[in-house]
Amino acid sequence: MNLPLLEEQYYKSQDYTINTLPKAEYADCTFTNCNFENSDLSNIVFSQCDFIDCNFSNADVMHTTLDDITFTGCKILGVLFQNCNAFLLSFKFINCTLNLSSFYQLKITRTNFSNCIMHQVDFTETEAKYVIFKDCDLYQSIFDRTNLEHSDFTSAYNFNINPNLNQLKQASFSKENISGLLESFNIKILD
């Protein structure tokens, strides 16, 4: 499918729940304070785009291309990233809320999550090598058969990762959050 190319465009305070975002290839575009809640973003290509203070809650990202995308201050609830086009998939998240979203079976190597609230996020069977979880709240997030080799959890908190079910070779943790690796063993850690 040949999509029209829109380059270096700036979109501000647009409500795409009312007027659907046109199917196109968006390159080096910036979206600020836009509402994509429950929007159909399927088959759209986003390349080197910035999303700032946008709402993506329950957006449909079936076959959506996310290539070198930065999400800053975005509300991203219930988004099934595993439905995205896996080719060229790369993104980073800064000060975002990603509750109930899913990265099931995705390759998200070297993704950076910084200061994010990530409650009940599904990382089942995800290849998450070299991922940085800087100051992230991972309350009830699911790590099951997840490859977390070389990933950085030193400032992450509220996580529960079973070392028997996940690959953790060379992953980094701090003394303060090491209990998140032991909860599945029903071990008490006393001060």
UniProtKB/TrEMBL annotation:
Pfam short name (any one): Pentapeptide
Domain of life: Bacteria
InterPro entries, per the entry: 5peptide_repeat, PA_immunity-related
Name of the featured protein: Pentapeptide repeat protein
Species of the source: Winogradskyella pacifica
